[in-house]
Amino acid sequence: MLYAVYKHIIDYILPKRCMACAELTQDGGGFCSSCWREFEFITKPFCISCGRSFALDIAEGHICLGCLKAKPHYDSARSLFKFNAISKKVIHAFKYYDKTILATNFAEMLCLRYMDEISDANLIIPVPMHKLKRLMRMYNQAALLASAIGAYLQKPVSFNILKKTKWTKPQTLLPRKSRLTNIAGSIAIENSDNVIGKNIILIDDVMTTGTTISLCAKLLKKAGAKKIVVLCIAST
C-alpha cells in the first residue's frame, strides 16, 4: 500500500517518457508506440553467420556473400535492429549522452530474442575501449551492456581479458579496406587461461563491417575459446 503511494507520487513528479523522443509513455524506460514502429527489427531470413537480414525472401540457413568471401572468426553474430535513423538516435543517446539506463532495456531485448543461442554461454566479454577514450567518454557502452546482460542471465562478465592497447581512428570514418590496417595490433588478450573451453558472448553496440568484432573473436579462439556468439544492438 505504502509502496503504491510512493510510486504514484514519483510517477507524477517524474513521468515516464519515451527513450527516443521523450514523449510521455505508459512504459517506463521504454519507447512510445510511434517510435517503436520506426525500429527495423532483424527477422528471418538472415545470414546464419553475421545475422544480417537478406534483401530477398530466401530459405533459412544460408550464409551471406560477405561471410562467404571472408569467414568471420566468431561462430555467429546477432543484432536487434538495422542501423536506421531511430536506432542511430537511441544508440547515440546511449553512447554519448549518458542514457546508460538503456543498457538494461537492450540487454533484456537481446536475451529474450536470442536466448536459444546464448543459453549455453558461461562467460560474457565486451569489446574493449582505449583508456583515453574511456576517460573522455566516462564509460564504455559495450561494458555497460555486457554487465546488464550478465545480470539478466546470471552469468559472469570479464573486463580484463580483451584490452585496447593502441589508439585508433573511428572505424566508421574509414573505407572497408583500411579498417583491418587501422586496428592491426590494437587489441591484446590477457588472462587467456580464463577463456579456455568457454562458450563466450562477445558484446558490442553496433556491427558495421564486423572487423573489430572478428579480430576480438580471433584472439579469443586462439586462446582456446570453444564458441563465440556476438550480440549487438544494431547492425548496418
Structure in words:
With 236 residues, this protein is of the alpha/beta class. It has two domains: 1-38, no CATH class; 40-235, Rossmann fold, CATH 3.40.50. It has helices spanning 2-13, 33-38, 65-69, 85-96, 102-118, 131-137, 141-153, 176-183, 211-222; strands spanning 76-82, 123-126, 162-164, 187-189, 199-207, 227-235. The strands form two sheets. It has a four-stranded parallel β-sheet with strand order 1-6-5-2. A two-stranded antiparallel ribbon has the order 3-4. α5 crosses α7. The longest helix is centred in the middle third of the chain and has 17 residues, at 102-118. It is globular, with a radius of gyration of 19 Å. It starts with a helix and ends with a strand.
Report the helical percentage: 25-40%
| Helical run tally | 9
Q: How many β-strands, per DSSP?
A: 6
Count of spatially separate domains: 2
Strand content: 5-15%
- Determine the structural class based on helices, strands and strand pairing: alpha/beta
Give, in order, the helices and strands.
HHHEHHEHHEHEEHE
Mean pLDDT across the residues is 89
| Proper CATH architecture of the largest domain | 3-Layer(aba) Sandwich
Q: Predict the CATH topology of the largest domain.
A: Rossmann fold
Question: What is the radius of gyration computed over CA atoms, rounded to a whole number of angstroms?
Answer: 19 Å
Q: Which of globular, elongated, flat, extended, rod-shaped describes the shape? A: globular
Please mark out the parts with pLDDT under 50 across 5 or more consecutive residues, or reply none.
2-13
CATH class category label of the largest domain: Alpha Beta
